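User: Please check C-alpha cell order:
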Amino acid sequence: MIRPSFFVMVAAMMVLSGCAGYRVGNVSGRNLQGVRSVYVPMVKNASLQPDVQPLVTNAIISRFNDDGTLTVSQNNNADSELDVTVTSVTETQVSNSVNDINITTQYQINMQATATYVNRRLGRKIFENVQVSGITNFFTQANIQEGIRQAIPLAAQDLANHTVKLVTEGW
C-alpha cells in the first residue's frame, strides 16, 4: 500500500527539479554584479561591406531594449561597455535552379564580428574578441545586389541577437 505522503514527496521533487536552472532577478554572476546599464558605441567596420555600422549598432541597441535585462545608455557613465567590430560580410550559394545548375536561386549572407564586453564597475573585461555571427538566406532576384541590400539588415539583426545573448546569458 502506497501512502499519500509518498505522492506528495514525488510531486515536490518534480516541481523543484523543474526549476533547477531558473533564476529570479537580473543578470547574475560575479562578473556582472552591479551592472544595470550598457554603453554601445558605434560598431566598427573592418569588412568590405559599406555602411553596416549604423545597421548593426541600431540592431544591438534595439535588441537590448527588447531584452530588458540592461538599460542602454549612450554616454560614458554606463556600468558596462560593449564594443563590436564587423570583420566580414560574405555571401555564399545555397541552392541552384532545378532546371539549370548554373543559375543560383538562393544565397546565404554571413556577417562575422568580434565583441568585447567590459564591466566598468569592476574595471575588467568579461570577454574579449569573441566571435559572433549573423546569418540569413535570400532568394535571387533580378538584381543580386538588391537581394544583398535587403538581406544585410536581417543578418545584422541575427548578429545583434547572438551578441546580446552573449552579454546577458553568458553563452
